[in-house]
Amino acid sequence: MSDEHTEELPSDVQDLVHRLFKMAREGNTDLVDYVRQGVNVDLMNQDGNTFLMLAAYRGHADLVRGLIEVGADVDKRNKHNQAPLAGAIFKKYDDVVDVLIDAGADPTVGHPTAVETATMFGRDDLLERLNAEQK
């Protein structure tokens, strides 16, 4: 949610939104319960990061799995055109990479793509899986 939109919200709602994004960064799986109660699973912060992006970038595989189960878009990119799969590869969170690949994340979206990121870091083991997903 952008700062301009957040400022329009009542302070208690602003506090809740900030807590929800903090939960994503910390890997708190209680966040999934909030989504089940009506919070938009693909809500974005001021940088265009969703809960899934933040959880993936911090290595929280269980939360990533839970968010996917409640409908998170595995390919939703942030304002920098970065996708969760490429971020997880960059951060070397193989368990998160596995969850995202198994959920059908597209290895060709974003910049750099997951394929490009794996290539940059010499992750031939991942390139085989990513290329197989493209077929």
TrEMBL record:
Record keyword Repeat present: yes
Q: Does the keyword Endoplasmic reticulum apply?
A: no
- Out of the domains of life, which is the source? Bacteria
Q: Which UniProt keywords apply?
A: ANK repeat, Repeat
Name the InterPro entries for this protein. Answer: Ankyrin_rpt, Ankyrin_rpt-contain_sf
| ANK repeat locations | 47-79
Query: What protein name does the entry list?
Result: Ankyrin repeat domain-containing protein
Can you name the source organism?
A: Corynebacterium yudongzhengii
